[in-house]
Structure formats: C-alpha cells, structure tokens
Amino acid sequence: MSQQTWTAVDDYFNGLLVEEDDALLTAVADSDTAGLPPHQVAPNQGKLLNLLAKVQGARTILEIGTLGGYSTIWLARALPADGRLVTLEADDKYAAAAATNITRAGLDHIVDLRVGKALDALPRLAAEGQVPFDLVFIDADKPSNPAYLQWALKLTRPGSVIVGDNVVRDGAVTDPDSDDPRVQGVRRFTELIAEHPRLTATTIQTVGSKGYDGFTLALVTG
Is the pTM of this model over 0.90? Predict the structure, then answer.
C-alpha cells in the first residue's frame, strides 16, 4: 500500500460522505497562504470530530490547539445555537488566521478564541467556574500532552469525551528510548490514561491523505 492509494481512498469516501463548503475550503487555502503549517486534520477526521460531538450531544467543547481554525469549524458546527466552544492557540499568527476563518464561517458567536500558552490559559479557564466541557480535543504541542490531560480531567464530567490527535508519531511511539520529546509526551499521555481510574480509552491507527498517524479516544467514567 502507498500514500497514493491512501489518498485515493480518502478522496473516494470524502467525495460521497464529507461535505466541505467554502468556509472550510477557504480556511485551508488562506492558512496555506498565510504560511501556517499544513497540520490541520484531514476532512474525514474533521467530519469524525463533528460526528463525535453530535453523538455526545455536546453543548460545550474545549479545543487545545487552534492552528487556522479548520477543526474548530467542524466542532463548532456540531453545537446547538446556544453552545460554546473555547479554543486555545499560543501563536499570534495562527490565532489571527483562525479568527478570520471562524468569523467567515459565521461561528464567532459560538467560538471563544483565546490567545496565549494553553498551560497559562487553562488555570484561568478553571477559575472562571464555567460548566464542565462535554468534549475536549487535544491537538497542540505533544510534550505538554500529559499536562493537558490533567487539565482536561479537571474541566470535564463523567460522560465527557477526550480526543488526543497525532499520537502514533510514525510508529515511534513504541520506542521507550526515543529522544524525541513529542514521542515521550505521547507515551506519558497514554500511560496516564491507562493508569487513571476515571478513564477508559482506545487508540486507533489511521492512514489517509495526511499519511500514517492515529488518535486516542477516552471516556471520562467517574
């Protein structure tokens, strides 16, 4: 199997099942033009996030790592009119692009985009005493994944869902001696989930237009 085949299969299913409108397509195009890295989720993965939020009946979503707002749009569109999505982005340039894309999609009344390091923003978010989040999507710097998980647990409730993206690291996640802090961050993130009495989870490997990767899906049980 090859990258060409994976992309062709994605294109086939996306053409039938995934609806990318102008707001989504322009979000990707304008992010590319602005020089953002092409790290947004694939269209079918964006649709998966949207479906997970709908199946969950989510009214509140926390996203750690906005980039250009592509996944933000998919997630926000799953929310009811009075729903709320808080998304955290450390990079000013990325956040500016995301704000434009979110506004163009007509979602700025639902999305609360906060600029700054997530590990600074999360304690402030907790101090606000907002209702627990129904879904948390973690897609930021991998060395911080263990800390993001701890905050996700503080900001959720029994029945909430936590999704961690880009966890396979091209297979390097299996190497306990890796000197890559991203690999070690994902490994510790996974170990913490496995050890935690309030979490049950699985990880799925994926192939497709974005290459070889995977995501972790965890349910808060207590």
Answer: yes
